[in-house]
Design goal:
The protein contains eight helices and two strands. By secondary structure, it is mainly α. Helix 1 packs antiparallel against helix 2, helix 3 crosses helix 8 and helix 7 runs parallel beside helix 8. The longest helix has 22 residues. It is globular, with a radius of gyration of 17 Å. The two termini are 22 Å apart.
């Protein structure tokens, strides 16, 4: 599957922005005003064989995460504030856009890589290397978007427990953290199955 998915980015953005407006945060509005186009255009990954590749990839992933987390939270009767779920689901991946000065990905100029490998994006060599979730927290902090310790821990642990920075937080996971980790795993698994043509569960 080497064809790049063409998404209705305007539709995704309107839904994304509308859900974030539920948080009633002027600081989130300022973040979107400054970096909204970058968020909307950013791909989640480099290759079509990877999840949520292409323009609007972060938007689609974030909305799927929010939807999945809501379903699980409701099903398991979690007593969680839906605003906390929305904040994590919709903002946790914004670090993927790059630094304030440079985009993390640039469109590949190689037709061979696109046609043979489905690789449409290259790492931007001008962009400083960084941890995605640390950059997310940097953006939120820069715009005065407050995070509780539970929310901070949840964002950090979305990277997975195998990372060096996550091992310190593994002994205690909040309900929010567990919910978002499981939701992310399901969203990624579902997308991989869709890419491979094996997904058959309507969830």
């Amino acid at each position: 599957m080497n064809k790049l998915i063409i998404r209705d980015v305007e539709k995704l953005w309107n839904k994304y922005e509308g859900l974030l407006s539920y948080l009633k945060s002027d600081n989130i509005t300022k973040l979107l005003d400054m970096h909204g186009q970058r968020i909307a255009e950013c791909s989640y990954s480099q290759k079509t064989s990877e999840v949520f590749c292409g323009i609007g990839g972060i938007l689609e992933y974030s909305l799927e995460l929010a939807k999945t987390a809501k379903v699980i939270s409701t099903t398991l009767n979690y007593n969680l504030n839906p605003k906390n779920i929305l904040k994590i689901a919709l903002l946790s991946e914004i670090g993927r856009i790059g630094t304030p000065a440079c985009d993390r990905f640039v469109m590949s100029n190689s037709d061979w890589h696109k046609e043979k490998l489905g690789q449409y994006y290259d790492w931007n060599e001008s962009c400083e290397k960084y941890n995605i979730y640390h950059m997310t927290i940097f953006y939120l902090q820069s715009f005065g978007i407050g995070l509780t310790w539970e929310e901070t821990q949840t964002i950090l642990l979305l990277e997975g427990m195998s990372s060096d920075s996550s091992r310190f937080y593994g002994e205690y996971k909040s309900q929010l953290c567990l919910l978002m980790q499981v939701s992310k795993e399901l969203v990624i698994k579902k997308q991989k199955e869709i890419i491979n043509g094996t997904h058959c569960v309507p969830f």
